[in-house]
User: Fold this.
Amino acid sequence: MLDFSQFGGYLIFLTVFTIGFWLLIFLLSFVVPYWIFGTIMENRKLKKEARLSEESEIPS
Assistant:
């Protein structure tokens, strides 16, 4: 049987483990895809701006 200090340590371990688990799920399902999508969109925007500035520099 567990005494109170062992039971308290067990509860603290479960709390930290559960918080870490849900943080990992949150990061993998929301933050990482948001970061990747934002990077792709920003790169497309920069390439478009570079292409437009290159076209405006060339005299016709």
In short: The mean pLDDT is 93. The helical segments are 4-57.
